């Protein structure tokens, strides 16, 4: 019997990320975004977007929209769980959120935040936590906050097979030590921030988030690093940008941060839908015959 050429897999037939959208009629041709794709995009000068996601529906929507990377942030603390800050968030709270996003996203790279207190103690603590997020949360990578002081943790994670995205500038888990929400890297702090960026790259981080950093300093760091920079309040010259999705889509109430651009008004849309639903129930127009079953 003659040998037959095996059919090509979807990974073999799909175009690399960044070469155009995959037609909706060919869902099996979707190809997972990998870390090398993000590095290739930096080399080509292509900018990309990242959004937070904390549940299956937001993950599906953003994945279908072509967002290449999703962050299951500990920002779930003040966007999902009702906390005032990210500090109370636990590993046990983050794992099911991460698993939901990773299971729902078919193409996007899923990065999970390591909560406060789950990695700062030692490289071995960081590795143990990172492994849980990879095994139990099904994450593709993890993110941790800190610069040069976190280099041993990053190196241990990467050596053990856990990809790491670093986070420098304003680091929310250190808000009390930093004296609140303040721009980082101004004046004499600039060189230290550049040193932090170089240190996390040297330790093996595949990308670095820069939060609330002066635009010229972020541009300088982006130029000096070979890994992608992801800005949030760090100006237009980063390789990528990330926003909390509830900020981006207008679900959060009140005044937003200066660096947020609101692309929709979901809070008003949901409120109107809820009011209309309540009015229909009160008036007896819902459920109607079309929503009821015959005997």
Automatic annotation (TrEMBL):
Protein name in the entry: 3-methyl-2-oxobutanoate hydroxymethyltransferase
Location of the protein in the cell: Cytoplasm
A single Gene Ontology CC term: cytoplasm
Binding site for Mg(2+): 74, 113, 145
CDD domains in alphabetical order: KPHMT-like
Function: Catalyzes the reversible reaction in which hydroxymethyl group from 5,10-methylenetetrahydrofolate is transferred onto alpha-ketoisovalerate to form ketopantoate.
GO biological process: methylation; pantothenate biosynthetic process
Keywords assigned by UniProt, alphabetized: Cytoplasm, Magnesium, Metal-binding, Methyltransferase, Pantothenate biosynthesis, Transferase
Cofactors named for this entry: Mg(2+)
Residues the record marks as active site: 211
EC number: 2.1.2.11
SUPFAM superfamilies registered for this protein in UniProt: Phosphoenolpyruvate/pyruvate domain (SSF51621)
Biased composition (Polar residues): 1-12
Positions bound to 3-methyl-2-oxobutanoate: 74-75, 113, 143
Protein family (similarity comment): Belongs to the PanB family.
Region described as Disordered: spans on this chain: 1-28
Source species, domain of life: Bacteria
Enzymatic reactions: (6R)-5,10-methylene-5,6,7,8-tetrahydrofolate + 3-methyl-2-oxobutanoate + H2O = 2-dehydropantoate + (6S)-5,6,7,8-tetrahydrofolate
A GO MF term: magnesium ion binding
InterPro entries, alphabetized: Pantoate_hydroxy_MeTrfase, Pyrv/PenolPyrv_kinase-like_dom, Pyrv_kinase-like_dom_sf
Subunit (UniProt): Homodecamer; pentamer of dimers.
Primary enzyme class: transferase
Pathway named in the protein's UniProt entry: Cofactor biosynthesis; (R)-pantothenate biosynthesis; (R)-pantoate from 3-methyl-2-oxobutanoate: step 1/2
């Amino acid at each position: 019997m003659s040998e037959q050429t095996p059919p090509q897999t979807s990974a073999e037939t799909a175009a690399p990320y960044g070469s155009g959208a995959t037609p909706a009629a060919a869902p099996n041709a979707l190809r997972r975004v990998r870390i090398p794709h993000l590095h290739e995009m930096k080399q080509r000068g292509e900018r990309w977007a990242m959004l937070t996601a904390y549940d299956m529906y937001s993950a599906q929507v953003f994945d279908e929209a072509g967002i290449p990377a999703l962050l299951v942030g500990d920002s779930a603390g003040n966007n999902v769980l009702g906390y005032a800050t990210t500090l109370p968030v636990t590993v046990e709270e983050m794992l099911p959120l991460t698993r939901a996003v990773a299971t729902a996203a078919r193409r996007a790279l899923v990065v999970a935040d390591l909560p406060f207190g789950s990695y700062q103690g030692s490289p071995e603590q960081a590795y143990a936590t990172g492994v849980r997020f990879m095994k139990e949360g099904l994450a593709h990578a993890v993110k941790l906050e800190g610069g040069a002081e976190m280099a041993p943790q990053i190196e241990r994670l990467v050596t053990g097979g856990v990809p790491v995205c670093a986070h420098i500038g304003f680091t929310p888990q250190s808000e009390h030590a930093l004296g609140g929400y303040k721009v980082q890297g101004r004046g004499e702090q600039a060189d230290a921030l550049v040193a932090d960026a170089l240190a996390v790259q040297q330790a093996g981080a595949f990308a670095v988030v820069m939060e609330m950093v002066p635009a010229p300093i972020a541009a300088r760091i982006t130029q000096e690093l070979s890994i992608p920079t992801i800005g949030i309040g760090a100006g237009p010259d980063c390789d990528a940008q990330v926003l909390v999705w509830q900020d981006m889509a207008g679900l959060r109430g009140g005044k937003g941060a200066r660096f947020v651009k609101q692309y929709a008004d979901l809070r008003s849309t949901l409120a109107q839908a809820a009011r209309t639903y309540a009015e229909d129930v009160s008036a007896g127009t819902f459920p109607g015959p079309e929503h009821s079953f015959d005997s």
